[in-house]
Amino acid sequence: MTDFENETEGAAASGDAAQDVAAAQAAMAGAASHITIPRGCVVLAATPIGNTGDASLRLIALLEQADIVAAEDTRRLYDLAHRLGVHVPGRVVANHDHNERDKADSLLDEVEGGATVLLVSDAGMPTINDPGLAIVRRAIERGLPVTCAPGPSAVLDALALAGLPTDRFCYEGFVPRKASDRTQRLRSLRAERRTIVFYETPHRIAETMDALLEAFGPDRSMALCRELTKDYEQVRRGTVGQVRQSVIDDPPRGEIVLVIAGASAEEANAAAPEAVITVAQAARLAQERSEGEGVRIKDAIAEVIKEHPLPDGSLLNRKAVYQAALDAKSSERA
Ligand code: SAM
User: Fold this and answer.
1) Boundaries of CATH 3.30.950.10 in the chain?
2) Better-predicted residue by pLDDT, 203 or 23
3) Which end of the chain has fewer CB within 10 Å, C or N?
4) Ligand 1 centroid to 254 CA: how many Å?
5) Using a 6 Å cutoff on CB, does residue 148 contact ligand 1?
6) In which residue ranges of the chain is CATH 3.40.1010.10 found?
């Protein structure tokens, strides 16, 4: 266990005693039956991200009354319905990343005919790193109504708990898996002033913390939020250096959201690329450095490229700069 001053743990314990749950279910089902759901409409509904008690009355009403339930995983949908004590009389169909584009039109034909299509993912808000966007886009194209029954989503839960500025933030989805993509993405965020939110998995968290240290340095504030809304909810708040050490000392399990403070004005200035340069300019700078400092042209090119990242964090192509340096040399000779 880590010893952060700012760590909070276990605060989300659900207190799911069996008799309490049964009584709550009965009360919820009664209350939900008074809720009217929209007809001839697609409804995206958020589902709990760990604590069944976070299911909204509208979600329950939709499960009980929708004509069709398009679920990311039908088994998980029935499991949720069972935990909520809800009967799902509508047709349940699978709607996942691999089939959602093909499925969209047939589901929307049903909407056109007056059906209510409820769309849910395994946890949290559909479309947020989950299926759902294809049907939303297609509904907009076809001029069909689409609405939302909002609720739990790990992004906002973590952001609210992190204790970092919430007035401006950017959601970056999952940290890229591939090391080179991860480095580029984080590099592109060095000058980002807004609070940054990333999703992560426990088996990559150690590499990601190394990459965060490399990109933002040890002193940037951050929070590692895990198992939100569950019995073992934990928020580790500290600097990148401290949180990284805690990950080494006590590897976190379960689902993780990382919230990282945005750059201060000084950090943003220091991190901003000095100036975007062209391949020809990079070749000329490298040539001058090579001649002035007596370093090999290849090494000078590598240095210049690294010092001048492009705004998206990527680097100029080394071969192209080398070729430009060769061309410049041969035109000097001619
Ligand atoms: N649609 C979901 C939402 O609205 O949050 C996100 C789905 S995405 C496939 C799953 C990722 O969300 C997890 O790998 C984790 O990063 C984050 N996540 C989901 N539930 C979480 C929880 N209870 N605690 C922390 N992170 C969670």
Assistant:
1) 155-271
2) 203
3) C
4) 10
5) no
6) 34-152
Whole-number Å distance between alpha carbons of 297 and 290: 5
pTM as predicted: 0.83
46 CA closest ligand 1 atom index: 4
Measured CA to CA, the distance from residue 282 to residue 305 in angstroms comes to 7
For residue 98, pLDDT beyond 90: no
Q: What's the CATH superfamily of 155-271? A: Tetrapyrrole methylase, C-terminal domain (3.30.950.10)
pLDDT for residue 2 is more than 50: no
Using the mean position of ligand 1's atoms as its centre, give its distance from the Cα of residue 198 in Å. Answer: 10
Of ligand 1's atoms, which has the minimum distance to the CA of residue 125?
A: 4
Distance of alpha carbon 215 from alpha carbon 186, whole angstroms: 6
Confirm or reject: Cβ of 205 under 6 Å from ligand 1.
no
Is the CB of 257 inside a 6 Å radius of any atom of ligand 1?
A: yes
Question: Which two tokens mark 326?
Answer: 């060769």
- Backbone angles phi and psi of 124, in degrees to 5: 80, -155
